[in-house]
Each structure stands twice: as C-alpha cells, then as structure tokens.
Amino acid sequence: MTARFEQLLHGLIGLDAESVGQVVIERAVRQRIAALACAGEDDYWLKLHSSAGEQQALVEAVVVPETWFFRYPESFVALARLARERGTQLGGARSLRILSLPCSTGEEPYSIAMALLDAGLPGDSFRIDAMDISEVNLQRAERALYGRNSFRGDDLSFRDRHFSESPEGFQLHTEVRRKVRLLAGNLLAPGLLAGEAPYDFVFCRNLLIYFDRPTQHRVAAVLQRLMRDDGALFIGPAEASLFSQAGMQALNIPLAFVFRRQTARPASTPAQAVPSVSARPRPAPVAAATASAPAPLRRTPAKVPAPAPATADSALDEIATLANAGRSAEARAACERYLAAHGPTAQAFYWLGLLSDVAGRSSEAQDYYRKTLYLAPTHAEALAHLSALLAARGDLAGARRLQQRAGRGVSRDER
C-alpha cells in the first residue's frame, strides 16, 4: 500500500520510510483518506497530487513531535558559555544570530532563549530564528502554552521563572517569546534562508537519522551554508560521525555534541571546564543548566569532592564532576573504583556508557548502556542514548523499541 506514498514523502521532506516504519505512514494515509471521505487509496492519491495543501496535511499526519524543554541540557550549558565568548568578541557590534530547525512546537528555541537570559545575556544581544515544516507545530509554538509533558526532569525552576500557570497549562512569558521568530520552511527547499545573514549558532538535532545517506549529506551541506565560518553547530549524538566526515570538528565540550569547521578558531581551550550538567543557566558569573533525558542524573556540588569519597553518593558526585570537567580518563577510573567497592550499579555503568560514547567507542558504549538497562530497565537516559546509537548503526527497529520504552516514562525512584 505505502510504496508510492513513501516515495512522495521522501521527495517532499526527505523522509526515509524505514526510519519511522511503514505502519506510521500507513496510519497517516488512512487518517487522511477518512478525513477526506475518499473512496479508497487511488482516489486519495489523485487528490494528494492535485493539492499542495493535502500534501502538507499528509506531512502533518506523519510528523509527530516528541520534544521537551532543555532536552540535551549540556548543549544549553555550552551555548551559554560560547555565546558569552562571542558576545565579548563582538563588543556590541551586532546581535548574536541563532537558528533552531526543525523547531517542532517551540521547546528548543524557547529553551535557548531562557538559557541565554538566565546566563545574563542582555535581551537585545541575541535573536533566535526557529523553523519547522509543520504549520500545526508552528501554531502551537506561537501560542506558547504547554502541558506537563513538555517539562521533564527533577529541576523545573526555570518554569517558575519563565511561565505563568493557568487552568489550560503553562504560558511562556512574553520576554522569552519575543526573542524567537517563528518561520515556516523546508530544510530541503532550494535557497533556504538565502536572504538571511549566516548564523553564529545552529541547532539541528536528531533530524538526520530520519534521512537516507544521500539526503543526510545534502542536509549537512545546507547546515554548513547557513553557519558562519566561525559558527558552531549543535547536533544529536547519533549524527556526530556524519559531520566528522563532512570536515567538521567536535569542540572539547563533554556531551554537548557541538561542532565547528576544522579551519575555524576554537571557541575555548580544552582546559576550560564545562559547568555542571545538572544546573540550569541563571544570571550569575558562571551559568549552568539542567533538564530531562538524556542527561546525567546525579547532581554535582559546586566544588570537587575529596579524592577519596566515603559514601556511594559522593563517589558518584566525583564521577560527574570529573566527566563534566572533561577529565574522562579520571572519571572512567573513578567508575571502576566505584564498581569494585559497591558492585554492579546502573548509574556507574551509565557513566561508563557516556564516557565511551563521547570517546567515539560506540560498541563499548552500547554494552554499558545495556548493562545499565539490565539493572534499571526504565533508565530514561540510557534508553535515549542507546536508541540513538542503534539508529546510527541502522538498527531502526531496535531504536524505535527503545524510544517507545522511554516514552512510557520513568519514576524518580527508578532513576
């Protein structure tokens, strides 16, 4: 049933049908056939080809957003630091330009705005463009009214600062909303944003895993065109190898998955530590961020613990501190000491998975994530990272199963 519709969607939005599964496309087609009261598939096919509006409606039926505020929190920590550095270099000559695409229902671009405001950047020092192919998503982003599913994780203090609660949900404050310009657009459209100046920072995460290899390379070229020569690109963990092959280099910022052209001047030296992954940016000399999966779970103290921690909690805190400072070898050794002292523990295996992931040892990372899930089957962060690794290796069915498990949620006690 779906072959011709799969080909059409590939031409429209670059979708690789295997990445979402035939059942998703079949369901979307059936929904549209019922909505238009078509006599059958052939009747719908004719209407689909004669109506750009119906093509958009089919895209809307296939594209189901799954996002939340401060997803991948390390990237917002890194952005706050890099933005302060770039702002200092510019000396007020112009505003920072940031692009988020696809922006879905707005959680990512609004998280960017909140992170920068909380990091102390003046409101007029940056501007965010947010683009999505879905008109429905953009309408929801424009409304900026969110339910509880958009807020995940234990630290939701940003919600108290930037939202007002109402019977309908949580309304984002105007101060944040006005920093984001919402745009409709297709990343594969010729000349996308051709009239716009290049961007200092581009966020495009977990999109390329839905494309076949030729489309991935095409999109990678578009993203590089949209960036300044000294700009930075934030991607998903499963997309790192593609951009490395495209001549880009990862910055030495643990778990942020941020890339820059190899010829560009690094934003910072390797010795500079990234703020704790579990503290969200606030107006203070040192900004930080937190959010939900995938992210480290332990909260790290402001100071590095004593070299020989006496308790399990302080040992895990030491691991987090070392990892966030980029001291991967020491963090790995601390994990091994922890396992020797306390036996098999999900959180220690999870940290070893993250450290292997960042080092590019994907097979080793998968093994540690699986050990984590053996001990804690609903560990949301391990599910998310393992899913991304499986998708990168082409095991889309396995990735989808893990995503479904992660979507069922995880209690604080299970974490």
- What is the β-strand count? 10
Distance between the termini: 42 Å
Briefly note the structural class of the backbone.
alpha/beta
The main pleated sheet reads as: 7 strands, mixed
Organism: Phytopseudomonas argentinensis
Region (Disordered): 288-309
Domain CheR-type methyltransferase: 1-240
GO molecular function, one term: S-adenosylmethionine-dependent methyltransferase activity
Q: Can you walk through the features of this model?
A:
The protein is of the alpha/beta class and 415 residues long. It folds into 3 domains: 3-62, no CATH class; 73-261, Vaccinia Virus protein VP39 (Rossmann fold); 312-407, Alpha Horseshoe (Serine Threonine Protein Phosphatase 5, Tetratricopeptide repeat), CATH 1.25.40.10. The chain is built from 18 helices and 10 strands. Strand 1 (96-100), helix 7 and strand 2 form a beta-alpha-beta unit. Residues 1-240 form the CheR-type methyltransferase domain. Residues 288-309 are annotated as: Disordered. Pfam families: CheR (PF01739).
From the structure above, extract its key features.
Rossmann fold, alpha/beta, 3-stranded antiparallel beta sheet, 10 strands, 415 residues, disordered C terminus, single chain, Serine Threonine Protein Phosphatase 5, Tetratricopeptide repeat, 7-stranded mixed beta sheet, 11% strand
Chart the SSEs and their pairings.
Blueprint: H1 3-13, H2 17-20, H3 22-36, H4 41-50, H5 52-62, H6 73-90, E1 96-100, H7 107-118, E2 126-132, H8 135-143, E3 145-146, H9 157-162, E4 163-166, E5 169-172, H10 174-177, E6 180-184, E7 199-203, H11 213-226, E8 227-234, H12 240-245, E9 248-250, E10 258-261, H13 312-324, H14 328-342, H15 346-358, H16 362-375, H17 380-392, H18 396-407
Helix pairs in contact: 3-5, 4-5, 6-7, 13-14, 13-15, 14-15, 15-16, 16-17, 17-18
TPR repeats: 346-379
Region (Disordered): 288-309
InterPro entries: Bact_Chemotaxis_MeTrfase (IPR050903), CheR_C (IPR022642), CheR_MeTrfase (IPR000780), SAM-dependent_MTases_sf (IPR029063), TPR-like_helical_dom_sf (IPR011990), TPR_rpt (IPR019734)
